[in-house]
């Protein structure tokens, strides 16, 4: 179905784990958690989406626990943030960029894993989106913030959905390879970053709220 | 064990998903999330309880991912809230009513699914309650609010527990059918709504708190 | 691999469930939830970590649902808190002590369960830590607080990690028995309590934050 070799696929998965883990460690730094909290939050963000995906696919012990190599990216991420290799001072922008990179890779690799487990294109797309947004939602929920996913400034789920759908269609057509998969990931990343840069929005949940729903209780980053 | 046909059972499950999804989309509207956030929050509330149930039953890929028809109720719910078919202006009362309807249906269908998977009456009752309250807890946690479940005004888990227990007992006695199942759901819904209307309460977690536990940090809707 | 008899192991597991459940019921009392909320929060804390562990091990229905005896510790905990047998007035200190006791037992029993399921020492250690910290994170997340795990005052994950690692090494060496397992649990409990008493800390997530990361939005207990 695809010519992405297993080794390359695991490699991409690990890179995605690393990007998400950095976003978790940056949030830990912003919230002044300690280094162990940073490692744990990084692990949760990096590995959470994939664990949820593997639980839903119901194929034995999730990769994150079966293969200890998955612990390396969070350890690396916590170290880079600790030594300020990733610039903590501009944490908000960095956090969003690393989060976008994780989102871009995971909507491709998550959809692929689901297809390989025998899911049809529509469920595989949904599971790909779940994998891609799951880690970030866990990060924000555990740190007691409203998930980035629900921040109406910028689009978040839309690029992930388009990327997962494109991956499923390309795989269906037999056209999914390293170049096409990379192109999808780059497009998802670009769409997310451009939406943040230019403040693209989709319509609100309720059309023309005539002063009705109060914004009380809303907290945004 | 039951004479609820599979088709009818799936139908009731989908109706329950729809009710819960509306409650999620109404919360999204109140918090001024966008339409995509509304769809995702609706999906999480509508499908979350059932996914947790299916993961615990450990019988392959959860229905919500295996059967794409489960995506329709959240899409419908997000559309109805967007076009104000469900009255968003009175969102709080609507939200609680739709939430109660989902609770009523899910404590019946969740218990049934657990019995069909071979669980005994006591574990099936517990899993039915978990299914019924799970989606709402996920909704409130992800939206960074204290779950409705813990709001001491009105009863929430008690009707779900009574409904799940009644379902298990009726099934055990061979009396569970469409009329009796519907009667249980209606009774759960009525009990929940009446408790909200008249402010019924159960005792607090600690008897006669003599000024001890401070209410600091408590946020209620 | 170990000479802890299954009955003793289940017994220790139930004691751990009880300790964590008390911490949940105490938090419910502090937040002025009602008695049903107390029972549910106690159940979530006590059983949540083990359910996550059993889902990840993918070995059928989690113990908490398969064996109704697991419901007894949360019921007992809710009763003891309701009748002030556990001193609710000094809830913060009590909560942290019961939480520490649960942490100490679960990092041993969780690691053991993972080893028995055939995991290697490194993944078993990780799953033991996940089991030990999982319930407490669920408690705090559901009650809309920043998890104790991320509170930089005192160490939390470090004793759990040391305890889980020691359990795995002892089992590997064939030295794990009731005395050695109990010694590990007591050491974990002591390390956690001493760290709270003397305010031991590990370094922050980012070295020497030169006024950069703002503490805005941080809430601590």
Layout of helices and strands:
The structure is a homotrimer of 221-residue chains.
Chain A: H1 6-30, H2 35-57, H3 63-66, H4 72-82, H5 91-116, H6 121-142, H7 157-172, H8 178-198
Subcellular location (chains A, B, C): Cell membrane
Transmembrane segments (chains A, B, C): 6-28, 35-52, 64-83, 95-115
Pfam family, one (chains A, B, C): Gly_transporter
3D architecture notes:
The structure is a homotrimer of 221-residue chains. With 221 residues, chain A is mainly α. Chain A has one domain. Chain A has helices at residues 6-30, 35-57, 63-66, 72-82, 91-116, 121-142, 157-172, 178-198. Chain A is globular and about 45 Å long. Chains in contact: A-B, A-C, B-C. Chains A, B, C: It comes from Arthrobacter ginkgonis. Chains A, B, C: This is Trimeric intracellular cation channel family protein. Chains A, B, C: It is a multi-pass membrane protein.
Which features does this protein show?
221 residues, disordered C terminus, 67% helix, Gly_transporter (chains A, B, C), globular, homotrimer, membrane (chains A, B, C), transmembrane (chains A, B, C), Trimeric intracellular cation channel family protein (chains A, B, C), transmembrane helix (chains A, B, C), 8 helices, mainly alpha
